[in-house]
Amino acid sequence: MIASSKFKLLIFILLSLFTVNHSFANEHAVEGTNHQEEKEFNVGEMIMHHIKDAHEWHLWGGHDNSVSIYLPVIIFDGGMKTFSSSYFYHGKHKTVFDESKKEEVDYYEGVGPAEGYALFHEKIYKLEDGQIHLAGEHPHNEKVNDFSITKNVMSLFFGAILILLIMGSMAKFYKKNGAVSPKGVAKFLEPIVLMVRDDIAKSNIDKHKYHKYVPYLLTIFFFIWFNNLLGLVPFLPGGANLTGNISVTLFLAVCTLLVTVFSGNKNYWSHIFATPGVPVVLLPIMIPIEVVGILTKPFALMIRLFANITAGHIIILALISIIFINKNVAWGGLSVPMALFISVLELLVAFLQAFLFALLSALFIGAAVEEAHH
Protein backbone atom coordinates (compact mmCIF):
# COMPACT_ATOMS: atom_id res chain seq x y z
CA MET A 1 0.00 0.00 0.00
CA ILE A 2 2.84 2.38 0.90
CA ALA A 3 4.72 1.52 -2.31
CA SER A 4 1.55 2.11 -4.30
CA SER A 5 1.04 5.52 -2.69
CA LYS A 6 4.63 6.52 -3.44
CA PHE A 7 4.20 5.45 -7.06
CA LYS A 8 1.01 7.50 -7.40
CA LEU A 9 2.77 10.50 -5.83
CA LEU A 10 5.66 10.18 -8.30
CA ILE A 11 3.23 10.01 -11.24
CA PHE A 12 1.42 13.10 -9.94
CA ILE A 13 4.67 15.06 -9.64
CA LEU A 14 5.75 14.12 -13.16
CA LEU A 15 2.38 14.95 -14.67
CA SER A 16 2.33 18.28 -12.86
CA LEU A 17 5.54 19.20 -14.69
CA PHE A 18 3.93 18.61 -18.10
CA THR A 19 2.51 21.82 -19.51
CA VAL A 20 0.39 22.23 -22.62
CA ASN A 21 0.83 25.91 -23.36
CA HIS A 22 0.35 28.41 -26.17
CA SER A 23 0.24 31.70 -24.26
CA PHE A 24 3.15 31.38 -21.85
CA ALA A 25 5.27 33.71 -23.96
CA ASN A 26 2.70 36.47 -23.64
CA GLU A 27 2.74 36.08 -19.86
CA HIS A 28 6.53 36.27 -19.78
CA ALA A 29 7.37 38.98 -22.30
CA VAL A 30 11.14 39.20 -22.00
CA GLU A 31 14.03 40.67 -23.87
CA GLY A 32 15.05 39.12 -27.16
CA THR A 33 11.64 37.86 -28.27
CA ASN A 34 11.53 40.44 -31.05
CA HIS A 35 14.42 38.54 -32.58
CA GLN A 36 11.94 35.92 -33.80
CA GLU A 37 11.27 37.79 -36.99
CA GLU A 38 10.56 36.17 -40.31
CA LYS A 39 13.75 34.51 -41.54
CA GLU A 40 14.78 33.00 -44.84
CA PHE A 41 13.55 29.39 -44.95
CA ASN A 42 16.40 27.05 -43.95
CA VAL A 43 15.79 23.47 -45.10
CA GLY A 44 18.58 21.92 -43.03
CA GLU A 45 17.49 23.69 -39.87
CA MET A 46 13.86 22.64 -40.37
CA ILE A 47 14.77 18.99 -40.98
CA MET A 48 17.08 18.81 -37.98
CA HIS A 49 14.41 20.42 -35.81
CA HIS A 50 11.98 17.62 -36.72
CA ILE A 51 14.29 14.60 -36.44
CA LYS A 52 16.34 15.50 -33.37
CA ASP A 53 15.34 15.03 -29.74
CA ALA A 54 13.83 17.93 -27.78
CA HIS A 55 12.68 18.94 -24.30
CA GLU A 56 9.24 19.80 -25.67
CA TRP A 57 6.69 17.92 -27.75
CA HIS A 58 5.66 20.44 -30.40
CA LEU A 59 2.14 19.92 -31.73
CA TRP A 60 1.43 22.76 -34.15
CA GLY A 61 1.87 26.47 -34.79
CA GLY A 62 4.91 28.67 -34.44
CA HIS A 63 6.34 31.35 -32.17
CA ASP A 64 3.70 32.86 -29.84
CA ASN A 65 0.90 30.82 -31.44
CA SER A 66 2.61 27.45 -31.00
CA VAL A 67 0.98 24.66 -29.00
CA SER A 68 3.41 22.29 -27.30
CA ILE A 69 3.64 19.84 -24.44
CA TYR A 70 6.50 21.07 -22.27
CA LEU A 71 8.25 18.08 -20.73
CA PRO A 72 9.91 17.79 -17.30
CA VAL A 73 13.53 18.94 -17.04
CA ILE A 74 15.49 16.90 -14.48
CA ILE A 75 19.07 18.05 -13.89
CA PHE A 76 21.69 17.38 -11.24
CA ASP A 77 23.76 20.40 -10.27
CA GLY A 78 24.54 20.38 -6.56
CA GLY A 79 21.37 18.34 -6.13
CA MET A 80 18.37 17.37 -8.23
CA LYS A 81 16.34 20.18 -9.81
CA THR A 82 13.08 19.68 -11.67
CA PHE A 83 10.97 22.15 -13.60
CA SER A 84 9.00 22.49 -16.83
CA SER A 85 10.93 23.07 -20.05
CA SER A 86 8.59 26.01 -20.73
CA TYR A 87 10.95 28.04 -18.52
CA PHE A 88 13.50 27.61 -21.32
CA TYR A 89 11.40 27.80 -24.48
CA HIS A 90 9.57 30.87 -23.21
CA GLY A 91 12.48 32.33 -21.34
CA LYS A 92 14.91 34.87 -22.75
CA HIS A 93 15.45 34.24 -26.42
CA LYS A 94 19.05 35.25 -27.21
CA THR A 95 21.69 34.90 -29.91
CA VAL A 96 25.43 34.33 -29.94
CA PHE A 97 27.80 34.71 -32.90
CA ASP A 98 29.22 31.44 -34.23
CA GLU A 99 32.69 32.16 -35.62
CA SER A 100 32.90 28.82 -37.44
CA LYS A 101 29.66 29.45 -39.40
CA LYS A 102 29.99 33.26 -39.44
CA GLU A 103 26.39 33.64 -38.35
CA GLU A 104 24.27 34.18 -35.27
CA VAL A 105 22.77 31.12 -33.56
CA ASP A 106 19.86 31.09 -31.12
CA TYR A 107 19.63 29.79 -27.60
CA TYR A 108 17.22 30.09 -24.69
CA GLU A 109 18.16 31.54 -21.33
CA GLY A 110 16.05 30.10 -18.53
CA VAL A 111 13.78 32.11 -16.27
CA GLY A 112 12.23 31.28 -12.91
CA PRO A 113 13.43 27.82 -11.71
CA ALA A 114 15.65 27.58 -14.83
CA GLU A 115 17.49 30.83 -14.08
CA GLY A 116 21.25 30.46 -14.44
CA TYR A 117 20.95 27.82 -17.18
CA ALA A 118 20.64 27.95 -20.96
CA LEU A 119 19.24 25.57 -23.57
CA PHE A 120 21.59 25.51 -26.59
CA HIS A 121 20.82 23.03 -29.38
CA GLU A 122 18.74 21.04 -26.86
CA LYS A 123 21.70 20.74 -24.46
CA ILE A 124 21.58 22.42 -21.04
CA TYR A 125 24.56 24.52 -19.96
CA LYS A 126 25.35 26.71 -16.97
CA LEU A 127 25.65 30.38 -17.85
CA GLU A 128 29.01 32.08 -17.40
CA ASP A 129 28.87 35.83 -16.83
CA GLY A 130 25.21 35.57 -17.79
CA GLN A 131 25.79 34.21 -21.30
CA ILE A 132 26.91 31.37 -23.56
CA HIS A 133 30.53 31.43 -24.75
CA LEU A 134 31.19 29.54 -27.98
CA ALA A 135 34.42 27.70 -28.73
CA GLY A 136 33.93 26.85 -32.39
CA GLU A 137 30.45 25.41 -32.80
CA HIS A 138 30.11 24.26 -29.20
CA PRO A 139 29.90 26.22 -25.93
CA HIS A 140 32.73 25.90 -23.43
CA ASN A 141 30.24 26.54 -20.64
CA GLU A 142 29.88 23.74 -18.11
CA LYS A 143 27.27 21.16 -19.16
CA VAL A 144 24.95 19.88 -16.44
CA ASN A 145 23.95 16.26 -15.85
CA ASP A 146 20.69 16.09 -17.78
CA PHE A 147 18.24 13.25 -17.00
CA SER A 148 15.22 15.00 -18.46
CA ILE A 149 12.19 13.23 -19.90
CA THR A 150 12.66 14.34 -23.49
CA LYS A 151 10.44 13.72 -26.51
CA ASN A 152 12.25 10.49 -27.40
CA VAL A 153 12.03 9.24 -23.80
CA MET A 154 8.30 9.94 -23.77
CA SER A 155 7.96 8.12 -27.10
CA LEU A 156 9.90 5.16 -25.68
CA PHE A 157 7.57 5.02 -22.66
CA PHE A 158 4.53 5.23 -24.91
CA GLY A 159 5.83 2.50 -27.25
CA ALA A 160 6.72 0.21 -24.34
CA ILE A 161 3.32 0.69 -22.68
CA LEU A 162 1.58 0.05 -26.00
CA ILE A 163 3.47 -3.23 -26.47
CA LEU A 164 2.73 -4.33 -22.89
CA LEU A 165 -0.98 -3.59 -23.28
CA ILE A 166 -1.32 -5.36 -26.64
CA MET A 167 0.80 -8.38 -25.76
CA GLY A 168 -0.69 -8.54 -22.28
CA SER A 169 -4.20 -8.67 -23.72
CA MET A 170 -3.14 -11.46 -26.12
CA ALA A 171 -1.53 -13.46 -23.31
CA LYS A 172 -4.62 -12.99 -21.12
CA PHE A 173 -6.89 -14.16 -23.94
CA TYR A 174 -4.94 -17.39 -24.52
CA LYS A 175 -4.50 -18.02 -20.78
CA LYS A 176 -8.26 -17.78 -20.32
CA ASN A 177 -9.41 -19.65 -23.45
CA GLY A 178 -6.50 -21.97 -24.22
CA ALA A 179 -5.38 -22.84 -27.76
CA VAL A 180 -8.45 -21.54 -29.57
CA SER A 181 -8.99 -19.55 -32.73
CA PRO A 182 -7.64 -16.02 -32.16
CA LYS A 183 -9.95 -13.02 -31.93
CA GLY A 184 -9.48 -9.28 -32.11
CA VAL A 185 -5.89 -8.04 -32.27
CA ALA A 186 -4.60 -11.58 -31.71
CA LYS A 187 -6.00 -12.55 -35.12
CA PHE A 188 -3.62 -10.03 -36.71
CA LEU A 189 -0.56 -10.49 -34.50
CA GLU A 190 -0.53 -14.28 -34.03
CA PRO A 191 0.79 -14.98 -37.58
CA ILE A 192 3.57 -12.43 -36.94
CA VAL A 193 4.48 -14.06 -33.62
CA LEU A 194 4.60 -17.45 -35.37
CA MET A 195 6.73 -15.94 -38.14
CA VAL A 196 9.29 -14.70 -35.60
CA ARG A 197 9.28 -18.07 -33.84
CA ASP A 198 9.47 -20.29 -36.93
CA ASP A 199 11.14 -18.23 -39.67
CA ILE A 200 13.57 -16.26 -37.51
CA ALA A 201 14.33 -18.18 -34.29
CA LYS A 202 13.78 -21.82 -35.29
CA SER A 203 15.38 -21.45 -38.73
CA ASN A 204 18.61 -19.88 -37.47
CA ILE A 205 19.14 -21.28 -33.98
CA ASP A 206 19.64 -24.93 -33.00
CA LYS A 207 16.25 -26.67 -32.85
CA HIS A 208 16.93 -27.81 -29.28
CA LYS A 209 17.94 -24.34 -28.05
CA TYR A 210 15.88 -21.77 -29.91
CA HIS A 211 12.96 -21.72 -27.43
CA LYS A 212 14.70 -19.64 -24.78
CA TYR A 213 15.65 -16.95 -27.32
CA VAL A 214 12.15 -16.49 -28.77
CA PRO A 215 11.05 -14.01 -26.03
CA TYR A 216 14.08 -11.80 -26.72
CA LEU A 217 13.60 -11.89 -30.49
CA LEU A 218 9.87 -11.15 -30.14
CA THR A 219 10.65 -8.22 -27.84
CA ILE A 220 13.16 -6.52 -30.13
CA PHE A 221 11.03 -7.22 -33.22
CA PHE A 222 7.85 -5.65 -31.84
CA PHE A 223 9.70 -2.85 -30.05
CA ILE A 224 11.44 -1.79 -33.27
CA TRP A 225 8.37 -2.31 -35.46
CA PHE A 226 5.96 -0.40 -33.23
CA ASN A 227 8.38 2.48 -32.69
CA ASN A 228 9.21 2.61 -36.39
CA LEU A 229 5.50 3.08 -37.07
CA LEU A 230 5.18 5.69 -34.33
CA GLY A 231 8.20 7.42 -35.84
CA LEU A 232 6.21 8.11 -38.99
CA VAL A 233 4.00 10.44 -36.98
CA PRO A 234 6.51 13.38 -37.09
CA PHE A 235 4.91 14.32 -40.38
CA LEU A 236 1.71 14.78 -38.38
CA PRO A 237 1.68 16.87 -35.19
CA GLY A 238 3.42 15.43 -32.18
CA GLY A 239 5.60 12.49 -33.26
CA ALA A 240 9.10 11.47 -32.26
CA ASN A 241 12.02 9.90 -34.09
CA LEU A 242 12.98 7.21 -31.55
CA THR A 243 14.47 4.52 -33.81
CA GLY A 244 16.25 7.28 -35.73
CA ASN A 245 18.18 8.06 -32.54
CA ILE A 246 21.56 6.35 -32.59
CA SER A 247 21.60 6.00 -28.79
CA VAL A 248 18.51 3.78 -28.98
CA THR A 249 19.87 1.65 -31.83
CA LEU A 250 23.19 1.38 -29.98
CA PHE A 251 21.42 0.02 -26.90
CA LEU A 252 19.50 -2.54 -28.96
CA ALA A 253 22.73 -3.63 -30.69
CA VAL A 254 24.51 -3.96 -27.33
CA CYS A 255 21.66 -6.17 -26.08
CA THR A 256 22.17 -8.50 -29.04
CA LEU A 257 25.94 -8.44 -28.45
CA LEU A 258 25.53 -9.42 -24.77
CA VAL A 259 23.07 -12.20 -25.55
CA THR A 260 25.43 -13.55 -28.22
CA VAL A 261 28.58 -13.36 -26.09
CA PHE A 262 27.04 -14.91 -22.97
CA SER A 263 25.41 -17.66 -25.05
CA GLY A 264 28.68 -18.59 -26.76
CA ASN A 265 29.71 -22.22 -26.20
CA LYS A 266 33.10 -23.91 -26.38
CA ASN A 267 32.83 -24.41 -30.14
CA TYR A 268 32.09 -20.71 -30.69
CA TRP A 269 35.03 -19.45 -28.64
CA SER A 270 37.41 -22.04 -30.12
CA HIS A 271 36.65 -20.57 -33.55
CA ILE A 272 37.53 -17.13 -32.18
CA PHE A 273 40.79 -17.96 -30.40
CA ALA A 274 41.91 -21.11 -32.24
CA THR A 275 40.34 -21.06 -35.68
CA PRO A 276 40.33 -24.62 -37.08
CA GLY A 277 42.63 -25.17 -40.05
CA VAL A 278 44.63 -21.98 -39.44
CA PRO A 279 48.40 -22.43 -38.86
CA VAL A 280 49.55 -21.49 -35.36
CA VAL A 281 51.85 -18.77 -36.72
CA LEU A 282 48.82 -16.97 -38.18
CA LEU A 283 46.76 -17.01 -34.97
CA PRO A 284 48.22 -13.68 -33.68
CA ILE A 285 46.76 -12.12 -36.83
CA MET A 286 43.48 -14.06 -36.93
CA ILE A 287 42.52 -13.66 -33.26
CA PRO A 288 42.30 -9.81 -33.36
CA ILE A 289 40.34 -10.04 -36.62
CA GLU A 290 37.85 -12.48 -35.07
CA VAL A 291 37.51 -10.35 -31.92
CA VAL A 292 36.86 -7.23 -34.01
CA GLY A 293 34.29 -9.28 -35.95
CA ILE A 294 32.34 -9.83 -32.74
CA LEU A 295 31.96 -6.05 -32.40
CA THR A 296 31.38 -5.15 -36.05
CA LYS A 297 28.28 -7.35 -36.32
CA PRO A 298 26.21 -5.42 -33.73
CA PHE A 299 27.73 -2.18 -35.06
CA ALA A 300 26.22 -2.99 -38.46
CA LEU A 301 22.86 -3.63 -36.76
CA MET A 302 23.03 -0.23 -35.08
CA ILE A 303 23.94 1.74 -38.20
CA ARG A 304 21.50 -0.07 -40.50
CA LEU A 305 18.46 0.70 -38.34
CA PHE A 306 19.53 4.27 -37.56
CA ALA A 307 20.47 5.18 -41.14
CA ASN A 308 17.39 3.70 -42.84
CA ILE A 309 14.86 5.27 -40.49
CA THR A 310 16.58 8.67 -40.43
CA ALA A 311 17.04 8.72 -44.23
CA GLY A 312 13.34 8.10 -44.81
CA HIS A 313 12.34 10.99 -42.55
CA ILE A 314 14.83 13.35 -44.19
CA ILE A 315 13.64 12.49 -47.72
CA ILE A 316 9.99 13.18 -46.86
CA LEU A 317 10.79 16.48 -45.13
CA ALA A 318 13.04 17.53 -48.02
CA LEU A 319 10.24 16.84 -50.52
CA ILE A 320 7.76 18.91 -48.52
CA SER A 321 10.36 21.70 -48.27
CA ILE A 322 10.25 22.16 -52.06
CA ILE A 323 6.98 24.10 -51.62
CA PHE A 324 8.59 26.56 -49.18
CA ILE A 325 11.84 26.89 -51.09
CA ASN A 326 10.00 27.92 -54.25
CA LYS A 327 7.36 29.86 -52.28
CA ASN A 328 4.65 28.53 -54.52
CA VAL A 329 1.87 26.18 -53.45
CA ALA A 330 1.68 24.79 -57.00
CA TRP A 331 4.83 22.78 -56.24
CA GLY A 332 2.66 20.78 -53.86
CA GLY A 333 1.28 18.97 -56.91
CA LEU A 334 4.74 17.41 -57.30
CA SER A 335 6.16 17.22 -53.77
CA VAL A 336 3.07 16.00 -51.90
CA PRO A 337 2.44 12.87 -54.07
CA MET A 338 6.14 12.02 -53.91
CA ALA A 339 6.20 12.50 -50.14
CA LEU A 340 3.06 10.36 -49.86
CA PHE A 341 4.71 7.60 -51.91
CA ILE A 342 7.81 7.64 -49.68
CA SER A 343 5.56 7.62 -46.59
CA VAL A 344 3.79 4.48 -47.82
CA LEU A 345 7.18 2.95 -48.62
CA GLU A 346 8.24 3.78 -45.06
CA LEU A 347 5.47 1.51 -43.77
CA LEU A 348 7.22 -1.38 -45.52
CA VAL A 349 10.64 -0.21 -44.29
CA ALA A 350 9.31 -0.05 -40.70
CA PHE A 351 8.47 -3.77 -40.83
CA LEU A 352 11.51 -4.75 -42.89
CA GLN A 353 14.00 -3.12 -40.50
CA ALA A 354 12.43 -4.85 -37.50
CA PHE A 355 12.53 -8.17 -39.37
CA LEU A 356 16.19 -7.72 -40.39
CA PHE A 357 17.29 -6.71 -36.89
CA ALA A 358 15.62 -9.79 -35.36
CA LEU A 359 16.82 -12.07 -38.18
CA LEU A 360 20.46 -11.00 -37.93
CA SER A 361 20.32 -11.20 -34.12
CA ALA A 362 19.09 -14.80 -34.48
CA LEU A 363 21.92 -15.56 -36.94
CA PHE A 364 24.54 -14.23 -34.50
CA ILE A 365 23.01 -16.16 -31.59
CA GLY A 366 22.70 -19.29 -33.71
CA ALA A 367 26.41 -19.13 -34.57
CA ALA A 368 27.24 -18.75 -30.86
CA VAL A 369 25.27 -21.81 -29.72
CA GLU A 370 26.00 -24.10 -32.67
CA GLU A 371 27.69 -27.35 -31.72
CA ALA A 372 30.80 -28.65 -33.47
CA HIS A 373 30.21 -30.80 -36.56
CA HIS A 374 32.04 -34.12 -36.67
Task: Please describe what this structure looks like.
There is one protein chain. The chain has 374 residues and is an alpha+beta fold. The protein folds into 2 domains: 18-148, no CATH class; 152-369, no CATH class. It has 11 helices and 12 strands. A 4-stranded antiparallel β-sheet has the order 6-7-8-9. Strands 1-3-2 form a 3-stranded antiparallel β-sheet.
What is the N-to-C order of secondary-structure elements (H for helix, E for strand)? HEHHEEEEHEEEEEEEHHHHHHH
- Average pLDDT, rounded to a whole number, is 82
Uncertain residue ranges: 1-18, 22-37
Strand fraction equals: 5-15%
How far apart lie the N and C ends?
A: 59 Å
Helix percent band: 40-55%
Label the structural class: alpha+beta
How are the secondary structure elements laid out?
Elements: H1 2-17, E1 19-21, H2 24-27, H3 43-51, E2 56-60, E3 67-70, E4 72-76, E5 80-84, H4 86-89, E6 92-98, E7 103-109, E8 117-120, E9 123-126, E10 134-135, E11 138-139, E12 145-146, H5 151-177, H6 185-204, H7 214-230, H8 246-263, H9 266-273, H10 283-326, H11 332-369
Antiparallel strand pairs: 1-3, 2-3, 4-5, 4-12, 6-7, 7-8, 8-9, 10-11
Helix pairs in contact: 3-10, 5-7, 6-7, 6-11, 7-11, 8-10, 8-11, 10-11
Task: Summarize this structure briefly.
With 374 residues, this protein is α+β, with helices and mostly antiparallel strands.
